[in-house]
């Protein structure tokens, strides 16, 4: 079975989706390692995306937290989040594989925006599925997508959030797989998506590993990243997997009994088959919720479930309140407004520092907070 | 287990059904196989509907066990699943339904692998395919269709089915070839579900010529071939049987009637009558298809 991460992963889809996914896996294996592909990919990452993004030493925050805090500045990537690494990689691959239409799901709208960007850049029509609930709370990104020519299709079924948007996109894909590439936005879904998204996002960790050694003189004690589906986290972790560096994922702990934290808050031990993969999912009676739309997903990428079961990474829940506090703290201490998603990672880094667990922490600042200003304005009474 | 594995070897190589009732359903003439989601829109109504399908001439009935996360189902079947879940359908109630429903044709359970993987009988700590199949067999289910279970991963379920005398049906898509086709051939029993066209489920007025090609690809398989996806009229049923199918599977066109009944607030009896009439049209179409000479290739 392809795409196994320990017992997790796989390709659990109806037979009609097997063939296009097998073809995509073959295209990925054959095309991505070639010099031709890599040259083109690196060219766009640098000149369109602005890579490499810097690593920044957060002096004031380090003082407050009592440990050295370094940020990988993925919020400075074009589009304002790490998402472009993946959308560029997949779109260039799709084009070489002969697809001429892109579809995507989006939660916070960051992935949809990054897909709209590459669609406009590479002249591919884009349709983005987005839950109606998310359209309300991330309106700015809807405008951005439409301005760049993408069609944004509201999804109203169920909770009308990210998981339902994935369902709607899968249906479109099943209908139109001959000419359409489903540009999955996180390290989730059936094989080859989890390993493909990791490949395209792993540039984050590769750069950061060099940069922090240059800046700090050695490797950090720990890496910290937020985990929705898990793409920015796996993108950071991958380069450190053989190092003596602890890996921490911050899951959205939500509020009360409502959360989207399958690895840190589920009671159920057994994995489930969900959206084409075998992975950990929140308990059936848990209401799926996070203040950050990008983390508001009831499952997690299969490789994170595997890293947890191997004891290679730890996952901790950060509540809405803790994330909002970190959001404000970083804004005031460093003049950087983070997205609500990495605010979870910052809050976890603070806890780890204050518990004296580690002296040096590298945090993936995977997105900027412009999209969250409405939520912030309401929460902090800014008007 | 070793014994049933041995039996499975023999069965697989000659393609015969594990379940004699399903085999018998294909014995005299083409089989008409309707699908409904159990519990759509309520337990009692769907019982009346399934019984109406049997009166209308069903030879096998596929009963959908609703799962909250069906992957790549079209809006029609999704709607049915949502209504059934909102009506309170659960695996336990589903099995009660199977025990309760008054029909004398074999019943095939169509569901997603997660429910089977997660299934644990009340009061038991054990979970998984063996538990699910044991309970299904006890309730009177004759076979299973699990759309998101790849054949290469089906061995535990196949073994459980062998032990309890259930058939395991696989879906062959227009794109299924090579190793995956081979894996299915080695593990299928009862009938093979030939998906007439790509895309999600949903009633369509055209019958794809992909069907002919798929039937040709399967021509050396010993197992009966039932064609489904998009069949909605007796005339289509006739054409598909005439081009070589051993049976037809109809889901969305029937679920559409249930949905219309919900929207227009028909009585249960009224909806059941319409389902029975549609079933009769489809069953008769299939029968005509067998007696008409097959259309020539020209
Ligand atoms: C800024 C940002 N960070 C994180 C995520 C979560 O995704 P992942 O866990 O795949 O990195 C999102 C998703 O929209 C996002 O916009």
From TrEMBL, chain A:
- Superkingdom, natural source: Archaea
Can you name one GO molecular function term for this protein? Answer: tryptophan synthase activity
For this protein, what is the EC number?
4.2.1.20
Record Gene3D superfamilies: 3.40.50.1100
According to the UniProt entry, which residues carry N6-(pyridoxal phosphate)lysine? 83
**Pathway named in the protein's UniProt entry:** Amino-acid biosynthesis; L-tryptophan biosynthesis; L-tryptophan from chorismate: step 5/5
Name of the protein in its database record: Tryptophan synthase beta chain
Give the species: Halonotius aquaticus
Name the encoding gene, please: trpB
From TrEMBL, chain B:
Q: Which Gene3D superfamilies match?
A: Aldolase class I
Know the name of this protein? Tryptophan synthase alpha chain
Pfam families (alphabetical): Trp_syntA (PF00290)
- As recorded in UniProt, its EC number(s) are 4.2.1.20
State what this protein does.
The alpha subunit is responsible for the aldol cleavage of indoleglycerol phosphate to indole and glyceraldehyde 3-phosphate.
Give this protein's Gene Ontology molecular function annotations.
Answer: tryptophan synthase activity
Upper taxonomic lineage: Archaea, Methanobacteriati, Methanobacteriota, Stenosarchaea group, Halobacteria
Tell me the route in metabolism or biology where this protein functions.
Amino-acid biosynthesis; L-tryptophan biosynthesis; L-tryptophan from chorismate: step 5/5
* Residues the record marks as active site: 62, 73
Q: Does the keyword Lyase apply?
A: yes
Q: One GO CC term of this entry?
A: cytosol
